[in-house]
Amino acid sequence: MTKQPEIENELTKLPILEFVFFNSAEIIFAHEVRELCEGNSCGMYNTTWACPPAVGSIETCMKKCQAYNKAMLFTTATEMDSSFDMQGWLKARVEHEALTDQVADVFRRFDENALILSTEGCTVCKKCSYPDAPCRFPDRMYPAIEGYGIMVMQMASALKISYNNGANTVTYFSMVLFNE
Ligand code: SF4
């Protein structure tokens, strides 16, 4: 029996803006996305276990994703005072990651090996143990979607999820891969 209806029922209880299920074969990978990471466009490259190069090559990441047959992409959107509202950005991201923890709990009840991908870097520890010691909380360390070479903007468009939810609003994405 498919797990999706039961999972969807649980997800509707959470403050998710939009979510969509799809086949993992529909994930759009691009070397260009990974190259942006390697150019350190967000400043997190080589700083956490959740980002390249620690997550492995793009081929390794693709292989990990291909081990699952289903996927789900979801968003949160948070209004800020302005696009320069750094506290607002940070708060929105922390809230999104807390929600991602809840979504991870839902999926792991149905597939204990579900793979969770989220925003850039990792917000769990004040100071990441990378690269001197293993990750302290591997269950809560969600690799960055872009670090896996996934084109979030194109996927949002293909899956009819809003990439941008208006001026002075930050939209964050997470993705879950699981097996039915
Ligand atoms: S959970 Fe902690 S140690 Fe692991 S990647 Fe995140 S910040 Fe680093």
Summarize the structure.
This protein has 180 residues and is α+β, with helices and mostly antiparallel strands. The protein contains 5 helices and 4 strands; from the N terminus they run αβααβαβαβ.
What does this structure look like?
The protein is an alpha+beta fold and about 180 residues long. Strands 1-2-4-3 form a 4-stranded antiparallel beta sheet, with helices on both faces. About 30% of the residues lie in helices and about 15% in strands. The radius of gyration is 16 Å and the shape is globular. It contains 5 helices and 4 strands; from the N terminus they run H-E-H-H-E-H-E-H-E. It has one domain (about 5-180). The chain starts with a helix and ends with a strand. The protein binds iron/sulfur cluster (SF4). The site of iron/sulfur cluster (SF4) has 14 residues, from loops. Iron/sulfur cluster binds near residues 124 and 129.
Secondary-structure blueprint:
Elements lengths: L3 H8 L6 E6 L7 H8 L19 H9 L3 E10 L6 H25 L4 E3 L34 H8 L9 E10 L2
Antiparallel strand pairs: 1-2, 2-4, 3-4
Bound molecules: iron/sulfur cluster.
Order of helices and strands: HEHHEHEHE
Percentage of residues assigned to helices: 25-40%
Question: DSSP helix count?
Answer: 5
Mean pLDDT: 94
Structural domain tally: 1
Class computed from helices, strands and strand pairing: alpha+beta
Distance between the termini: 8 Å
* Uncertain spans: none
Question: Could you tell me the number of beta strands?
Answer: 4
Main sheet: which strands, in order across? Answer: 1-2-4-3
Query: What ligand molecules are bound, each kind once?
Result: iron/sulfur cluster
Query: Cα-atom Rg, whole angstroms?
Result: 16 Å
Principal-axis shape:
globular
- Report the β-strand fraction as a percent range: 15-25%
Most strands sheet: 4 strands, antiparallel
